[in-house]
Design a protein that fits this description.
disordered N terminus; aminopeptidase; 5 helices; three-stranded antiparallel sheet; 15 strands; four-stranded antiparallel sheet
Length: about 350
């Protein structure tokens, strides 16, 4: 999970607020005169478009966070009410942890619990279930294992996980909308256990998802695995974006896909988000992977060839601008002396 603020586009989705189903995704191209309008897609499939409720409510101060028992250890940002995440672990300035010791074991334990939570969350996905119900269950599961749900109160985020449906790229806030037959939903979970974070996500199919939606989820996981395959000691970080591009650049069974450049992976350990930043698109960023680096790879793959996004009035929920669907999958990768290990597999 990576939190990056996005600016509201000059071209909002105001003309889409009555949209319910897409086949094709047809709407008026009301772009400013100095912008090229998006071509109307003709193969995005059948699905509900997620849009902000009206009247708009700005921010999330109206959403009450769930309670966390006093005995649960909290990350610094949940204690001091600030957005600053303070390092408490053994990482050096480059974000590397010492291998073979207590820090590595704690990191592995956090990642292992995150994997369990991810799979538990996926088991709750079914037609008619609300994402608020899933969030409540995930919150209780994490607490019952002596951990803290890392998203809660991070920069003011009001829930314990992120649930991003259909055209939502990331940071969807759980609510009372029932999941519908044909939805896809990404559930992004992060836990804080014994001073270390574990972070992972997956996009789940709800009921009978159409072919374009299933292909989107399939190529997203292929892109993640390609990024992982580029990892190892001495390997440039930019190779991750190149590997992902090689998967999504050709058409996949007759469909076009692209990767969102707005959200990156990140270093993780005693701090939720830190260097190294992992770019999923083609880039020339410097830096190489070294033993002790631990980071997430979490490409958000989008239908079509337009990865532009905008943020809802809540300040968190990021949607594709043309309402194409997006899927995301995420793993934590630890660079060792001899290779790269996926901690959340």
């Amino acid at each position: 999970m990576f939190f990056r603020a996005l600016q509201l586009s000059t071209r909002t989705a105001s003309h889409l607020r009555t949209s319910k189903w897409i086949k094709p995704c047809s709407f008026s191209n009301s772009a400013p005169l100095n912008e090229e309008p998006f071509p109307v897609p003709d193969n995005f499939g059948y699905y509900s478009v997620i849009l902000p409720d009206e009247p708009f409510v700005f921010g999330v101060s109206h959403i009450k966070p769930r309670n966390v028992p006093d005995h649960i250890k909290r990350p610094p940002y949940a204690l001091n009410g600030s957005s600053k995440d303070i390092q408490e672990g053994a990482e050096d300035r480059a974000g590397k942890i010492p291998l073979g010791g207590d820090a590595e074991q704690k990191l592995r334990s956090a990642a292992s619990l995150a994997r369990e939570v991810r799979e538990y969350a996926g088991s709750l996905v079914k037609v008619g279930t609300t994402t608020n119900t899933i969030d409540a269950a995930v919150h209780d599961y994490i607490i019952s294992h002596g951990a803290y749900p890392s998203p809660l109160l991070y920069n003011g985020f009001p829930k314990s996980c992120c649930t991003s449906i259909n055209n939502i790229i990331t940071h969807g806030i759980p609510d009372n909308r029932p999941l519908e037959d044909g939805d896809i939903v990404n559930i992004d979970v992060t836990i804080y256990l014994n001073g270390y974070h574990g972070d992972t996500s997956q996009t789940w199919l709800v009921g009978d998802v159409d072919l374009p939606g299933r292909l989107l989820c399939s190529i997203t996981n292929q892109a993640l695995e390609a990024g992982i395959s580029a990892c190892g000691p001495g390997q440039p970080f930019k190779n991750i974006g190149q590997a992902i591009h090689a998967v999504i650049e050709p058409q996949y069974q007759g469909f076009d896909f692209c990767v969102s450049p707005a959200f990156s992976g990140h270093g993780i350990g005693s701090v939720f988000h830190r260097k190294p930043w992992i770019l999923h698109h083609l880039n020339d960023e410097p830096g190489v992977m070294m033993p002790g680096h631990c980071f997430t790879i979490e490409p958000a793959i989008i239908q079509g060839t337009h990865p532009t996004s905008w943020t809802f009035p809540d300040g968190w929920t990021a949607s594709t601008e043309n309402c194409a669907r997006s899927a995301q999958a995420e793993h934590m990768v630890l660079i060792t002396e001899n290779g790269a290990e996926v901690l959340t597999r």
